[in-house]
């Protein structure tokens, strides 16, 4: 197990460097000069620009800038916003709680409803319930999140009045339920379908026949034997999905006016605040990598075959 | 996916690599299939299944319709998607009985016919979906095949490259690329999506090739003296490609959704280009007084995505011998 953990940790390093380098290049290979943009329409003093660039380290060659950025990351420095001089980590920490709450709630809905529907459909493969669940999940996958968002907003908030159309206070869980439902819809559908396939496959496995043959009740055979084996691929997907949920929050947070990471990165993109974008995206890549690592470790715990492979 | 919505399609990925199909007794269908005694190939077997499947027929019909609309929008409407008449048509409600006329689905806040706009918006979505899928299919299959077949350090290096691209959130990455372009045409958007999207296909192809390369017929071909290129092209590729095709089909719907999301966020296609995502963004401002501005492009967009997903689902079920 120890060797496995070390190997996975070492594998993360090139991936992290590669991914951050890609984002860094994407953002800084852009046309447009963030320092010059500070002057707007006013006349520009070249000496002042040069001095400011030297101050921010923007006059260095690109590889040197990236190296500085990586070294900063090691000390928990995600960069500094050029216009305001505010550290990007400040932007992240002030926006993170709302996104975390939203993501957590969406994740909960995904797990409970997704796995629940998937198990029901998988146990009754081919039946009426199964076909209905398949159809509904297919709808959830094909209707884009922003459309679902507005439909829910009109229906649940404007017509029925069950919820507020926008989130006024992101610390109130009750206000986050509607956005979380929207955010989770796609993942929920994927999880339900994945669980269904997995359960339907494992239902016919030899160990299930053995379990029934040795006199276990159907309920026990399903809840102990079938679930444990069927949920392994689902756990992997759920882990990767946390990263997707955080990135998907851009759209949902926009519709429901939540001041989270998604809104922050969207604002930064529209103002071309390169430092902020790179900082936040780097943070998301880190979250994604750590979660995938945790999932892989969990996977190894759940399935001994992986550990010794 | 995405985010959105773009993410790996886990279900399709579980589809195992092609096994030579189990011979089906030929006398069951005397009218179809090859000569008696010869087992049908996996594909003809699948085709035999698909022809009888309502979900396949419906999705194929829908896709055909959308392709026709994309190629010849003039067949469906004479109205221009860009001409607005503010004095007469501002947010006019749909006239649902006036089939196929410009006022059928109502007008938007600039007095433009929504029917004309959703017809003319089809082309952009379809072109971007097809282009991204084509690039991703070629690039991903190539990388996946090399990594899976050669193994060793080739696999290690290529897999790390795949992991690196996978570490970047799909939609966010595309936004970061696109925001640097002042003019974003369909080609630029397609490239941005393809750069981040090819990894899914590469992973599926790699897994599929690893399974196929242990098959007896590959050993046989090698012992008969076939070269690497021949083994790859004649034996591995045809037998490993089935799951990749399924994933690509399902992903096509995802790319159309991603393009719409980008256009909706204002980082994709912009005026004067006509796109469903942009129209949905435009419609959200009048959602409470004139919901039709948002609803009809949404229906069109969702139906397109649904058609490709349904097609992928149907083909996967037909190709998967385990479900027989």
Automatic annotation (TrEMBL), chain A:
GO biological process: transmembrane transport
Keyword vocabulary terms for this entry: Cell membrane, Membrane, Transmembrane, Transmembrane helix, Transport
Gene3D superfamilies recorded: MetI-like (1.10.3720.10)
InterPro entries for the chain: BPD_transp_1_N, MetI-like, MetI-like_sf
Pfam families, per the entry: BPD_transp_1, BPD_transp_1_N
Principal localisation: membrane
CDD domains named among the record's database cross-references: TM_PBP2
Transmembrane segments: 12-30, 102-121, 133-152, 172-192, 230-256, 276-302
UniProt topology in membrane: Multi-pass membrane protein
Domain ABC transmembrane type-1 residues, every copy: 96-299
Entry superkingdom: Bacteria
Localization, UniProt: Cell membrane
GO cellular component term of the entry, any: plasma membrane
Family from the record: Belongs to the binding-protein-dependent transport system permease family.
PANTHER family registered for this protein in UniProt: DIPEPTIDE TRANSPORT SYSTEM PERMEASE PROTEIN DPPB-RELATED, DIPEPTIDE-TRANSPORT INTEGRAL MEMBRANE PROTEIN ABC TRANSPORTER DPPB-RELATED
Name of the protein: ABC transporter permease subunit
Protein's organism: Streptomyces calidiresistens
From TrEMBL, chain B:
GO cellular component, one term: plasma membrane
Span list, region Disordered: 1-40
BP-aspect Gene Ontology terms: transmembrane transport
Subcellular location: Cell membrane
Taxonomy, superkingdom: Bacteria
Transmembrane as UniProt keyword: yes
Keyword rRNA processing: no
Chief subcellular location: membrane
Regions crossing the membrane: 56-76, 126-149, 161-181, 187-205, 236-256, 294-315
Alphabetically ordered keywords of this record: Cell membrane, Membrane, Transmembrane, Transmembrane helix, Transport
Domain ABC transmembrane type-1: residue ranges: 122-312
Protein's membrane topology: Multi-pass membrane protein
A Pfam cross-reference name: OppC_N
Membership in a protein family: Belongs to the binding-protein-dependent transport system permease family.
Protein name per Swiss-Prot or TrEMBL: ABC transporter permease subunit
Organism per entry: Streptomyces calidiresistens
Upper classification of the organism: Bacteria, Bacillati, Actinomycetota, Actinomycetes, Kitasatosporales
């Amino acid at each position: 197990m120890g060797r496995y953990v070390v190997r996975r940790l070492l594998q993360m390093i090139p991936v992290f460097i590669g991914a951050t380098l890609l984002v860094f290049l994407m953002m800084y290979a852009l046309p447009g000069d963030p320092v010059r943009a500070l002057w707007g329409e006013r006349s520009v003093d070249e000496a002042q620009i040069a001095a400011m660039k030297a101050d921010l380290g923007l006059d260095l060659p690109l590889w040197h800038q990236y190296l500085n950025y990586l070294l900063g990351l090691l000390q928990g420095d995600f960069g500094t916003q050029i216009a305001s001089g505010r550290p990007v980590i400040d932007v992240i920490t002030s926006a993170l709680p709302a996104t975390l709450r939203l993501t957590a709630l969406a994740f909960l809905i995904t797990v409970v409803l997704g796995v629940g529907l998937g198990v029901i459909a998988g146990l009754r493969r081919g039946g009426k319930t199964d076909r209905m669940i398949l159809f509904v999940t297919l709808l959830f996958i094909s209707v884009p999140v922003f459309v679902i968002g507005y439909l829910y907003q009109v229906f649940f908030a404007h017509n029925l009045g069950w919820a507020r159309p926008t989130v006024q206070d992101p610390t109130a869980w009750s206000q986050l339920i509607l956005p979380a439902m929207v955010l989770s819809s796609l993942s929920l559908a994927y999880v339900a379908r994945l669980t269904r396939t997995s359960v339907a496959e494992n239902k016919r496995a030899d160990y299930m026949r053995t379990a029934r043959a040795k006199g276990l009740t159907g309920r026990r055979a399903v809840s102990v034997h079938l679930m444990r084996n069927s949920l392994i691929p689902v756990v992997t997907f759920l882990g990767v999905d946390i990263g997707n949920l955080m990135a998907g929050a851009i759209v949902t947070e926009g519709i429901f006016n939540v001041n989270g990471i998604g809104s922050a990165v969207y604002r930064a993109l529209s103002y071309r605040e390169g430092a902020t974008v790179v900082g936040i995206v780097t943070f998301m890549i880190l979250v994604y990598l750590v979660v995938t690592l945790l999932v892989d470790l969990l996977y190894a715990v759940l399935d001994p075959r992986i550990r010794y492979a | 996916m995405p985010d959105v919505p773009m993410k790996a399609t886990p279900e399709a990925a579980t589809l195992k690599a092609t096994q030579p199909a189990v011979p089906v007794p030929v006398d069951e269908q005397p009218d179809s299939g090859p000569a008696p005694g010869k087992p049908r190939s996996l594909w003809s077997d699948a085709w035999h299944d698909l022809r009888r499947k309502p979900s396949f027929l419906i999705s194929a019909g829908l896709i055909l319709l959308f392709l026709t609309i994309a190629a010849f929008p003039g067949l469906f409407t004479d109205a221009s998607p860009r001409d607005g008449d503010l004095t007469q048509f501002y947010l006019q409600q749909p006239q649902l009985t006036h089939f196929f006329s410009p006022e059928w689905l109502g007008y938007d806040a600039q007095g433009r016919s929504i029917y004309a706009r959703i017809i003319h918006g089809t082309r952009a979505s379809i072109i971007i979906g097809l282009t991204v899928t084509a690039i991703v299919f070629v690039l991903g299959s190539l990388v996946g095949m090399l990594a899976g077949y050669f193994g060793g350090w080739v696999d290690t290096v290529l897999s790390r490259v795949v992991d690196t691209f996978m570490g970047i959130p799909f939609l966010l990455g595309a936004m970061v690329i696109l925001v640097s372009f002042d003019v974003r045409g369909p080609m630029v958007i397609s490239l941005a999506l393809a750069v981040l999207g090819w990894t899914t296909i590469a992973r599926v192809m790699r897994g599929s090739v690893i399974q196929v390369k242990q098959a007896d017929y590959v050993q046989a071909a090698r012992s008969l003296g076939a070269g690497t290129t021949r083994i790859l092209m004649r034996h591995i590729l045809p037998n490993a490609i089935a799951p990749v095709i399924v994933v690509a089909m399902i992903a096509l719907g995802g790319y159309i959704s991603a393009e719409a999301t980008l256009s909706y966020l204002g980082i994709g296609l912009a005026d004067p280009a006509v796109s469903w995502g942009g129209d949905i963004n435009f419609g959200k401002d009048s959602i409470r007084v004139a919901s039709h501005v948002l609803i009809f492009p949404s229906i069109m967009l969702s139906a397109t995505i649904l058609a490709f997903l349904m097609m992928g689902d149907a083909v996967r079920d037909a190709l998967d011998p385990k479900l027989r």
